Amino acid sequence: MPTQMVRNPVRPDQLNVLQQVFDQACIEHNINKASPDGEALALILVHSMQKGLSEKEKLESLAHILAESRQT
């Protein structure tokens, strides 16, 4: 039987944090929000929060790592 991934809904206060992290990462790393890189970053951040990564600092670190890895 396939294993299902547990994803919790994102609350409004968490959505605000996600937006801040996403916006800042896009500015710092010159990522167009509507580009494939921007969409991938947003998706990974949302999924990470749904899986329990809710601390802003950790999300910022993840966004930085992801943004840096796209340039290599």
Radius of gyration: 13 Å
The total beta strand count reads 0
State the helical fraction: 55-70%
Order of helices and strands: HHH
**How is the biggest beta sheet arranged?**
none
SS-based class: mainly alpha
Average pLDDT, all residues: 91
The 3D shape can be described as globular
Which residue ranges are poorly predicted, with pLDDT under 50 across at least 5 consecutive positions? none
Strand content: under 5%
Distance between the termini: 37 Å
Number of helices: 3
Task: Give a concise summary.
With 72 residues, the chain is an all-alpha fold. It contains 3 helices and no strands.
Explain what the structure shows.
This protein has helices spanning 12-28, 36-50, 56-69. It is 64% helix and 0% strand. The chain has 72 residues and is an all-alpha fold.
Draw up the topology in text.
Blueprint: H1 12-28, H2 36-50, H3 56-69
List its salient traits.
72 residues, mainly alpha, 3 helices, globular
